[in-house]
Amino acid sequence: MTRIALVGYASLDHPIQLDGVYRPHWTTPIRHRGGGAWPRAGGCHYYAALPIARAGMRPSLVTWIGGDDFGALYRRQCVAAGIADDGMAVIADGATPLCFLVYEDNGACACLIDFGMAGRETVTPEQEKVLTAADLVCLTVAPPAASRHALDLVRPDATLAWVTKNDPVSFPPRLRDTIAHRSRIIFCNKRELAWVDEALGGAIGDRTIVETNGASEITVHRVQGEVAIPVSPVAATDTTGAGDTLAGGTLAAIAAGETDIIAAVHAGAAAARDLLRQRTA
User: 132-146 pLDDT, tens per residue?
Assistant: First the structure.
């Protein structure tokens, strides 16, 4: 079985759908809290790992949690979802990051985050073992020093995937360029495509770039040309993790032996659609 490791920040998400809009000095009722577990495990790597776990594989998250109740809850939710915890490092006196996602009726969203112990994450010997053993490593938004360390540990015969975010703190220019050139498959949204293209110097080479555009079509970029994949819109207010889920569903198909990248991206789109359907009001 393909061994898969995903690197990224952990957070416990608290989604809130308001009944109206937020106004200062005013009480706004909460219509619902997202359904399912609340708070719920989050982070780009977590959402990418879910469809991989559902495909019967047991991906490992290389991540950091605090030695608090929230960290223990994060671990329990991951394990219950079929995700391995062998790459989770606990910072004993650290606070697990928390994120509050506040959605208004008009579609606007405010993201309030407590970064907790951010800046104290280091790659542990146990995490090094997970990364070295992995046949497929997926980098998402993570501490830059950890991403650099992970790159050094990816085996030459392993596949590197990158789920991007135009975040100059997590991906300073030199690190961004290095990851882009090392990656075989890159996932980005329409706004990030130029940023990725800049990192590659305009030369896509033999890699694949999967570009999402919200509820519009997905575009698969290869040196042979572009392929558009239609998307069936889902009326979900909470779209957190949809792009990451698409990436994970694509990687799950590839890890299961799919050699047609277009078919793999179709599988990823189906995984993202399933996630959003679970959140329809």
Answer: 999 999 999 999 999
